Amino acid sequence: xxxxxxxxxxxxxxxxxxxxxxxxxxxxxxxxxxxxxxxxxxxxxxxxxxxxxxxxxxxxxxxxxxxxxxxxxxxxxxxxxxxxxxxxxxxxxxxxxxxxxxxxxxxxxxxxxxxxxxxxxxxxxxxxxxxxxxxxxxxxxxxxxxxxxxxxxxxxxxxxxxxxxxxxxxxxxxxxxxxxxxxxxxxxxxxxxxxxxxxxxxxxxxxxxxxxxxxxxxxxxxxxxxxxxxxxxxxxxxxxxxxxxxxxxxxxxxxxxxxxxxxxxxxxxxxxxxxxxxxxxxxxxxxxxxxxxxxxxxxxxxxxxxxxxxxxxxxxxxxxxxxxxxxxxxxxxxxxxxxxxxxxxxxxxxxxxxxxxxxxxxxxxxxxxxxx
Length: 372
Description:
This protein is an alpha+beta fold. The chain has seven helices and 22 strands. The strands form five sheets. Strands 5-4-1-2-3-7-6 form a seven-stranded antiparallel β-sheet.
């Protein structure tokens, strides 16, 4: 290779490399040279918020002060010193029910707690006293002594007229992140979940609004900002939101909570009859669904309405009594159906019972009694 040709190759290569280096370095050199002239970017005009955004903001700002953050403590005994003390055990949500300081939450939020602290949106915290609870509906009522500056009670709506597809808003304290709002829709109605005792909680609202641990006990609101449910559970293998959450409908809350405040327990109406789910299951296996009346309180509603119980006659034969197959507009296939149907009413209501007697169907009006 002759020297002039090699020199030209080296020169061309070096020039090409210099051009590439200059090209690649141009932005850096420009930034260095012009950086002293850098200024904030011009803000683009936003315009008005969309109507849906304004509505969501108004719902949160109106309801926020009525939502509370609940932290619980559990009594722990030191195995070495035998000293007992309260240790933090969990957190949840709740909301102000009335102007007397009553707070509604889930029963499972405070079930194992030895004490609870309720923190308001303005930062004030109060020790809470348990007023009453209804595990069958996963509801509990606490009381806090708020003097001046009491937060407004949450606005209450209805759940009997909910429709799948309605917008809903959940406010609570997921994972301890206080006063968080998530949105979604009513995904389904009349869902059923078993409680800790195995008895199903019926009539639940299913929603895809993100509900996580800590949301329990918080309100589920409709697009008018009214309470339509109490967030109670999620369905998730991972323990986090998977788009399937459940809430106790407000119609149930509005029926149960006043009794918890007044009496400390929930006492649904009754018929004054004795039943046995095992007998009903055996009859259902033979194609005779319903609830068989095995006994009657002589002073109860069933006796006043003339219901006939199953009885044993003098010759040892069993004479089958009335079998309840409907209550109001609800079909009754077993005892759990009867309990669920009764809980839609209050003591003193008069409802129609559909019964079978001697192979015939009869409709009987009955005034519901109290369980107390």
